[in-house]
């Protein structure tokens, strides 16, 4: 029986043998990693065609992760989006609280097949780190997670979760002390320990085969959403909307819709304080093609190829690169990418919380803010699916500071009432 | 104007004719300043280095350990530009007559423009480039321009490289091959990896006329002598950078690298 939840790309949508999506992708890696990366490619290719692998992964995705994930219509939220219908693909309801587990379980099975005993990973918001630490606990693998020092502070809850799960968390103090630097440090570890260590890369960037493989593990998001929408709304959406940092949840949602030419694929990048301020991580909006972390893609860089420091309130989107398939979708025109500011994302976070009782991750809130814009553009007949890629528990400290929700803030209660009134007022 | 690929070949051949390994030093441009970096190169050559690799600092030095990361960071915060790297190559070569290579990551060159970079490097008197994150299968464009401008393309091989891969790399490379003595990033190590000699032998077996030089973790005369026993050249980087970082002032740093180069130069002539 074919797999229900592990649905790799059909023939015709694969990258070239060298790992290129058009002009983007490839394998820009040190010689020391060539053998290991090739091994991942070979092992993944075998696994992809092995019914035993599909069965094992399906089993985990159903009984451990909780797939399929729900599709929730959010009418009260949608009132603020010009009346378009909005459905959320609830990846936040997966075990560990985000889409990341889809990829992690697949790669953890591969790790076991390769006979490796140790896993390393990078993490920004901590969601990939938590998912990886979870899988390592489940499979009995040693686990080391690299996380930028700034991110260990703003996502302290996830650091505690990873340690609770038995992982070693290393705070990276180099460079901008965020996701990019965590990846640098993970690569350094991998070069030195590659004989027994798998680098469980968390997004659709990096050297081939990671962009295609990680996408395949997340492809289930769009496949399910497409089927669920046809059942529930009776038609395909006008737009599929997702946030993009490295791009894994977005490609997971988009991919099954690529052949549906009338479905717009809209990625929401972090504009931080505004693209014009220079303090942002809107790679596709403001970057130029270059090489970062093993592949050619859009990159935030200066005229001499130095990577510039990104900024976003969201640790998971605070990255100066992007998966090569997104660069390809952008240049081919199939994908649309827009930039969402910190403030717009935070307002959307609160709006969804108060209108629907769902607290999204700050990452996913960028997609929600994008959906509010797109909904207004589409009008009342619009139908939008948004990937709610993660839940917001981890972000409560950031959100509490942003909105002044702590008891020490005397005006909290009064503010809250006013704000709700404003939100309701907006809808009219 | 053509680059100095031939000077590099002649220099390595001359060392071989003397029955010794060549000493190849690495120092980042712009560290501690552009002028200070040029003085440091002159000092290591004065101390006995045969060839110098000038690092073009990168914001994301994925293959470098903490010592070179620190130096790169100092150089970048000091505002080092590719024009400064070219000036470093030009002045170091003009003052010493030795072959000077550039070592960097691929993105700065990709962004700057391969033709522009190779033309300027050749014009400055450079001898070639080492690009550790540009694997051979992605290197065709680079090699076309490097060859046109008389620049060597030095590839890195690793203990994990399979024999058929070594053959591809040595067929495409020129100048010499950089054999990484161990699996890891740059930095000083207490002992020379046991994997190094085997890698040199496997690399030589694929092409006899391309010198094989060993780097990563070599930091003192004893290690240099050991490596010189089986390799055509000994590459030392982090130990020089560390000597400068540890020195109380720039003048003491220059003396320290000159003295270290002197020790290492004796080491490559001793052969353990």
UniProtKB/TrEMBL annotation, chain B:
Pathway entry: Amino-acid biosynthesis; L-tryptophan biosynthesis; L-tryptophan from chorismate: step 5/5
Keyword annotations: Amino-acid biosynthesis, Aromatic amino acid biosynthesis, Lyase, Tryptophan biosynthesis
PROSITE patterns: TRP_SYNTHASE_ALPHA
Coiled-coil regions listed in the entry: none
Enzyme Commission code(s) on record: 4.2.1.20
Enzyme type, top EC level: lyase
Catalytic residues (positions): 53 (proton acceptor), 64 (proton acceptor)
GO molecular function, one term: tryptophan synthase activity
Pfam families in the record: Trp_syntA (PF00290)
Subunit architecture: Tetramer of two alpha and two beta chains.
Family in the record: Belongs to the TrpA family.
Role noted for this protein: The alpha subunit is responsible for the aldol cleavage of indoleglycerol phosphate to indole and glyceraldehyde 3-phosphate.
HAMAP family, per database record: Trp_synth_alpha (MF_00131)
UniProt cross-references to NCBIfam families, sorted A to Z: trpA
The protein's name in its UniProt record: Tryptophan synthase alpha chain
Source species: Streptomyces tibetensis
